Amino acid sequence: MKQQEYDRIASALDDDAGLTVAINSVASPASYTRASGQFDAESLPRSRVVLTCGADLTPEPVQWLWPDWLALGKFHLLAGVPGQGKTTIAMGLAATVTLGGRWPDNTRCAAGNVLVWSGEDDYTDTLLPRLIAAGADRKRIFFVDGTSVGDAVRPFDPATDTRTLQAAIEQIGCVSLIIIDPVSTAVAGDSHKNTEVRRGLQPLVDLATNINAALLGITHLSKGGQGSDPAQRVIGSIAFTAVARVVLVAARVQGNDGEDKRILARGKSNIGPDNDGFEYRLAQVEALPGIHASRIEWGAAVQGSARDLLTDPADANNGTDHADAVSLLKAELTAECWTPGDAASKALKDAGFSKKTNLERWQKTQHHAQERRHGRGLVLALIGWA
Q1: How much is the pTM?
Q2: CA 5, CA 355: separation in Å to the nearest integer?
Q3: Selection from 17-31, 38-52, 61-75, 254-268 with the highest mean pLDDT
Q4: What is the DSSP letter of 124?
Q5: CB within 8 A of 180, min separation 6: which ones?
Q6: Cβ within 8 Å of residue 178, ≥6 positions away
Q7: 40, 194, 208, 380 - which has most CB atoms within 10 Å?
């Protein structure tokens, strides 16, 4: 457009500011570099980092749904190997919330609504019967079925549907607990990659913060690892436990009396105590005529770290510890007779020394042992293990 033509049109439309602005925008478009395919920096809005001074902030205490166990606005994990009743525990917690009942430590819970999103268990024949068995108020339980798009319903996707879910929650009102089973369904990518796990969890973490609800994700623990930190055995990326403010661990162990028992313990907490727990048992009941379901029956409070509480004494000890293995080594090296290799290595096996670890642990002692004729049986055993 020539300048004379523009001036004539602009003067004729002076009374219409909107059109004048539109014409100006057409006559003087934002500078665009065709080579790079981008607008020049001068045409883009300026960005700046927003800083808040600590003096302008007011410290606030953590708000708890269950004091020291479930915090409002925070993300939690409930982990355990298969068969420990993780989902049943979650349904028991949900029932307590709907009833405004009492937690295992006998503290009172404020009544609220509960949202459940499960990718494993059927709502009608599994989760609802468990909720009924736990005495839940069914009017306060809401299940996520999917996302409606026109006449179709597709699976819920937290990456794109969280805002819609928040709108639905605000219509329900008073949602104080959200349960995701398993939490890995929230991750669209590889659940073993930190960045993808954090990206998948963040919309749900933000949702919990926005509506001030406790978010509880259920996940699995790897088997074995007796004596290790249970929170470090969560399957998948370490980001699951890093993002969670509290990690609860459910496991079955053998007590000192030889009886099996189940324990729910705190494996990690960034906002409160990170130890102690409660005994529990899984009971089978008839929730409704002809409908059977499991429910949680809570037992006594127990004290100690999750590592200690969830270590099976039989597996961790087997009657022989590492000190016994050292004593065995000393005895064999000073003995006046030959010792068969199998007999010499038995106590080492009982103490937890494997062929794989033996080379590293015992190489330093082999050249000393070889100098002693009376210890040949043990030396041969160690070399054979290595």
Answers
A1: 0.70
A2: 91
A3: 61-75
A4: I
A5: 117, 118, 186, 204, 215, 216, 217, 218
A6: 114, 115, 116, 117, 204, 207, 208, 213, 214, 215, 216
A7: 208
